[in-house]
């Protein structure tokens, strides 16, 4: 490994360990004011699931140099987990807090939304590792494109129907489940949009825009559906199956079908 790769490895390890340790302490070290359960356990386990997804992609679809060298597998796994640990802090700025809404208030809707968001961002980073490339900076550049698209799409959904209020204030489990599935779906598409052998920064950006065109459509569809199914005085809780499971499954199926039809990178 080169000197810059060793530096990235060390920094990634520090950020990942400190970031996820503080995440775990933040979730376990607050006074509970809500109902028992509330999705805290699954959310605590979400980082392990994200690591498993990332390592699975690295072992099967990453550059041959990465697949065949344990030190590079370690480098990109730690880089991804450090990346995710930093981005997990952005969720609070978008109105959903793991510590406040899940650990303290025991809100299962927020746990579903955040769990899906973590997996979606993992897919964004994992896609950036697919294909041959000259080094770690290529992964960071590609992952940045996908991650920017992810948060822009989330911001659009927030603008269209205020998903953060529906999840955190109304505690609508159907919305949390549907939005979590939507996050995974767009993460799948965005990860695919930055996958492939490296050519140039401009070409990668062009490919990302060309492949990720369904993401705004998925955001608009989730926004419209969220407005239609938002809780009202007459209907304080949406049906979990009709408003959560079915549309969430539709988002995932549509994203998976699109990625399969898009073919190899």
Task: Summarize this structure as a short list of keywords or feature phrases.
13 helices; mainly alpha; globular; 77% helix; single chain; 265 residues; 0% strand
Summarize the structure.
By secondary structure, this protein is an all-alpha fold.
Describe this structure in words.
- The protein is mostly helical.
- The chain has one domain (3-262).
- It has helices spanning 3-28, 40-61, 64-67, 70-87, 90-93, 98-104, 108-128, 136-161, 163-168, 173-193, 201-211, 214-229, 240-262.
- Helix 1 crosses helix 4 (70-87).
- 48% of the residues are buried.
Count of separate structural domains: 1
Unreliably modeled segments: none
Largest sheet: none
Percentage of residues assigned to helices: over 70%
Shape: globular
Question: What's the N-to-C terminus distance?
Answer: 27 Å
Strand content: under 5%
């Amino acid at each position: 490994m080169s000197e810059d790769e060793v530096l990235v490895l060390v920094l990634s390890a520090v950020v990942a360990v400190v970031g996820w340790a503080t995440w775990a302490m933040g979730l376990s070290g607050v006074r509970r004011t809500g109902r028992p359960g509330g999705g805290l356990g699954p959310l605590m386990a979400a980082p392990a699931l994200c690591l498993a997804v990332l390592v699975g992609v690295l072992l099967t679809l990453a550059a041959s140099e990465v697949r065949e060298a344990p030190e590079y597998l370690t480098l990109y796994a730690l880089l991804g987990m450090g990346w995710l640990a930093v981005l997990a802090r952005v969720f609070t700025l978008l109105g959903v807090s793991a510590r406040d809404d899940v650990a303290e208030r025991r809100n299962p809707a927020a746990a579903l939304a955040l769990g899906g968001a973590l997996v979606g961002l993992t897919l964004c980073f994992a896609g950036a590792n697919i294909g041959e490339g000259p080094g770690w900076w290529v992964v960071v550049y590609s992952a940045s494109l996908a991650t920017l698209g992810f948060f822009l799409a989330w911001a659009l959904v927030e603008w269209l129907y205020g998903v953060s209020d529906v999840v955190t204030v109304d505690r609508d489990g159907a919305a949390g489940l549907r939005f979590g599935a939507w996050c995974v779906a767009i993460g799948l598409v965005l990860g695919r949009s930055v996958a492939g052998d490296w050519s140039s920064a401009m070409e990668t950006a062009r490919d990302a825009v060309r492949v990720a065109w369904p993401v705004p459509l998925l955001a608009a569809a989730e926004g419209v559906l969220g407005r239609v199914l938002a809780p009202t005085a007459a209907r304080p809780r949406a049906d979990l199956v009709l408003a959560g499971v079915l549309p969430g499954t539709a988002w995932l199926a549509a994203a998976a079908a699109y990625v399969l039809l898009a073919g190899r990178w």
